[in-house]
Amino acid sequence: MALQRTFSILKPDATARNLTGAVNAVIEKAGLRIVAQKRIHMTTHQAQTFYAVHKERPFFGELVEFMTSGPVVVQVLEGENAITHYRDVMGATNPANAAEGTIRKLFAKSVGENTAHGSDSAENAAIEIAQFFSGNEIVG
Ligand code: CMP
């Protein structure tokens, strides 16, 4: 087992419904430690950069519009195998397919408004963390 860090976003559907504390409770109960966290309003440029890998997808415009529609909470989570563990804790991208007890099953509204993002690889976690946090903002 390896201690890892992953990048998380609590999306605008979570902040709009005042659910950030409820989502954080699920994260912490799962054994992940929130070692950095801030509430921001993403600019269009930040969202386009963050989701650049999806820029050819038909939902890209909708995704950027949603992610800039209200505040988000960006986080760094730390724990054993944090990247895959957090993806398990979030559940499937589409809440209709998410397992019981997962963040998306509990809270997500749709595949677009799906409450949380988590990095999909160690390489992307490092890139995503660096987009939003400097080293001295992460306190493990
Ligand atoms: P996320 O983990 O943030 O990474 C890419 C996001 O694209 C994903 O979560 C979904 O919210 C979003 N997404 C994926 N498929 C669709 C879709 N068919 N329509 C709208 N958004 C989507």
Describe this structure in a few short sentences:
This protein has 140 residues and is α+β, with helices and mostly antiparallel strands.
What does the model show?
The mean pLDDT is 98. The chain contains 7 helices and 4 strands, in the order βααβααβααβα. It has a 4-stranded antiparallel β-sheet with strand order 2-3-1-4, sandwiched between helices. The chain has 140 residues and is α+β, with helices and mostly antiparallel strands. The structure holds adenosine-3',5'-cyclic-monophosphate. Residues 54, 59, 62-63, 93, 111-112, 114, 117 line the site of adenosine-3',5'-cyclic-monophosphate.
Main structural class:
alpha+beta
Largest sheet: 4 strands, antiparallel
Fraction in helix: 25-40%
Bound molecules: adenosine-3',5'-cyclic-monophosphate
Rg calc: 14 Å
What is the first-to-last residue Cα distance? 18 Å
What's the rounded overall pLDDT mean?
98
| Major β-sheet strand ordering | 2-3-1-4
Low-confidence stretches: none
Give the overall shape, derived from the CA principal axes.
globular
Layout of strands and helices, then pairs:
Blueprint: E1 3-10, H1 12-16, H2 20-29, E2 33-40, H3 44-50, H4 60-67, E3 72-80, H5 82-90, H6 103-107, E4 116-118, H7 122-132
Antiparallel strand pairs: 1-3, 1-4, 2-3
The structure holds adenosine-3',5'-cyclic-monophosphate.
Supply database-style keywords.
about 140 residues; alpha+beta; four-stranded antiparallel beta sheet; 7 helices; 4 strands; about 20% strand; globular; binds adenosine-3',5'-cyclic-monophosphate
